[in-house]
What does this fold into?
Amino acid sequence: MDYKQDDSYLLLSGIQHFQFCPRQWALIHIEQQWEENSRTVEGQHVHKKADDSSAREKRKDKLIVRGMAIKSETLNISGQCDVVEFVEDSAGVSLYGNPSLYRPIPVEYKRGKPKVGREDELQLAAQAICLEEMFLCQITEGYLYYNETKHRHLVLLSDALKQEVRAIVTKMNSYYHRRYTPKVKTGPHCKSCSLQNICLPELMVRESVSEYMERRLRE
Amino acid sequence: MKKMLNTLFVNQSDAYLALDGGNIVVKKEDEILGRVPLHNLEGIVTFGYTGASPALMGYCAENNVPLTFMTKNGRFLARVIGESKGNVVLRKTQYRHSDCEIQSSRLARNFILGKVYNQKWMLERTTRDYPMRIDVARFKETSQYFSRKLIEIQECEDLERLRGLEGKVAVHYNQLFDDMILQQKEDFMFKGRSRRPPLDRVNAMLSFAYSLLARDTGAALEAVGLDAYVGFLHRERPGRISLALDLMEELRGIYADRFVLSLINMKVIQAKHFIQKENGAVLMTEEGRKVFLSSWQKKKQEMIQHPYLKEKMMWGLVPYAQALLLARHLRGDLEEYPTFLYK
It folds into this structure.
């Protein structure tokens, strides 16, 4: 029997780390290295507001649930949704104890403003895949809320996007299984990385250690 | 490189440490001697016997501020550390290397290479700076002897032989150590290492400097997720921070010995800063320790250029940089451990 422990799921939020840099993801999720910087602290602050009230809230045709634990068996990931809105919809699914039918819509809170990269959309799509499995439904849209612009942006969750998430997560699972920390190309993105001091990206382009040792010892 | 914060040294032996909000409060009986915000500190070292409050220990453990207890003579007693960083993979790799004779000897070789190389350049530096005050021929001869030994060490993959080579070099180094003391000769002389207890003033200072350095390398190793107790050159013994001692080898001369020599040669430390006990043990007075520690902190803030990373950093960050490089090697990013080779 395939005995699965609760802590064998990968963290869903790791998708954005992986998308940013697979090495950063491995350092955090495989090697458990973490350093706070201003961005990560700010991020926690934004999420505090979103995750704080775990009680559900009812507004007209909407049921709003905050900090919902989610997971996907097929992807082997788990995490949290900042907000899931259940919108009344005759084509939706039933929720236990509620007379109406609902369509779940994930809403993810982010610090800053919309990014150039697609990591936020991918994370949202991963949440949608989890919700689809948990509620046995189709989810085609979600929202990203940005703290700086105070606006939510509609994101269409296409099959192509979900397929991309599956491919990324498969790779993450394979790295995790092998406990593999990849070496990757350094670039401008290293400057905004919270793990710069641990990763030492400059090491990747430096003279080899044996050359260094030889050179010094000959001096 | 990461930022270097301050280390708080509590020198008074009857001081009690407590937590108040985000501050550490130093008390003597009921009087408050000082209050320091904890987020400015990267470590606390206390030479007191009255201890610290559990609340402070908890805060330190949670926030990765190592709290170290020393005897008032500067011998290491204990350290409060939090949950070890979860890098199990790295630690297991470290243990595998430690169990493997070949891997251990390769790492041990680099630590010893660093020690001998750095000591050699200390001798060279002395001949350059004080040619009129020392026996240059003898220094040069010893330096050449070191160069020959460096080649032998480089080729050696046997731990026992490595330790033997290190021992031979140490004899020659110790013979010249006294010659590097150029001031206050009547009060400070070096006739060989004595420990537990140190029997002269130079040994008292060396022991103290080594225990501070071991504390710094130990904390650095733990900060990067390594186990400071499992070494390669030094084999494990209960309670001994073997890996910290390994990593310290390359810094002993260039960092600790040079520091002690400069305190004497610059007359920062003087005979009056020591007392002798009935058993012959020589100890530093409270005033002497204060002078020593404030100079140590100043030394840590001096800027140097890291020979491998080619980055400017404070001396105090060198143990951290080396620990990080060691972790990088064990993790497979670097094919070899780049020893700190300083000229």
